[in-house]
Amino acid sequence: MSAELLTVPEAMALLKVSRWTVYNLIRSGELASILVGERCRRIPATALDAYVTRLCEEAA
């Protein structure tokens, strides 16, 4: 199994948004994430791709 996991700062950079925005997307359920250990939040690259795809489909 080889899933790429992104940190919040990496997701911020890819989406070009703030930390606050990424955490709000996670809290709202719009962007899936996992907790590694007790404090390490990671976003699967596939979840980020799915989020962007949804945005593109909604915009069309």
UniProtKB/TrEMBL annotation:
A molecular function GO annotation: DNA binding
Domain of life: Bacteria
Residues of the signal peptide: none
Coiled-coil boundaries: none
InterPro entries in the record: HTH_17, SinI_DNA-bd
All copies of domain Helix-turn-helix, residue ranges: 5-54
Pfam families xrefs: HTH_17 (PF12728)
The protein's name in its UniProt record: Helix-turn-helix domain-containing protein
